Amino acid sequence: MAAGCTLVLVLMAVVLTRTGAVPLTRPLRAVSDARGCNIAQFKSLSPKELQDFKMAKDALEESLLPRDRRCGSRPFPRPWSLKQLQVWERPVALKAELGLTLKVLEPLANSTLGDVLDQPLSTLSYIRSQLQACGPAPPTTGPRSQSRLQHWVDRLKEAPRKESPGCLEASVTFNLFRLLIRDLKCVASGHLCT
């Protein structure tokens, strides 16, 4: 009986090796799960989606040009990188980033920018809904990383009170492609984002 089991195991190993099948090194939840969590689909956006975002960003920047403003702080600081956070913290930070972005841009959809913003806002809302479907992962690290996450989330939550609408609009506009290309890709890549 033991020889038969050993033979079956050896045959399975040979078949798996020849077919290129590799055991999963991460939980399935990181890619997709029964609750509809499928954030890996956002590793890269389609060229059409990126073009829609570029048109929206260009239109937003054009609307910002005539204004003379002095902004006190930046809700999205230059050294901001989700790579500095633990893997489980990154979706939390991205949700906060998306929340502020949508809060600032959604009212502009009722302006002359509505036609240009409709599709990008729909895409951002869909991304946020997918992040919410994933739910938070349990913390696995110490307080240093969590305090950085909390600082970032607090900074984004406080931004509408601390900044003028024009400054918020400028900050969100200038951060839009970093959110889409770097931050979203990092969260979608999970442990592979280093």
Order of helices and strands: HHHHHH
By DSSP (H or I, 4+ residues per run), the number of helices equals 6
Strand fraction? under 5%
Q: What's the Cα radius of gyration? A: 21 Å
Q: Determine the N-to-C terminus distance.
A: 47 Å
Mean pLDDT across the residues is 76
Residue share in helix = 55-70%
Low-confidence stretches: 3-35
Please provide the count of β strands.
Answer: 0
Indicate the overall shape. globular
Please give a structural write-up.
By secondary structure, this protein is mainly α. Helices cover 61% and strands 0% of the residues. The protein is built from 6 helices and no strands. Helix 2 packs across helix 4, helix 3 packs antiparallel against helix 4 (114-134) and helix 3 (90-105) packs antiparallel against helix 6.
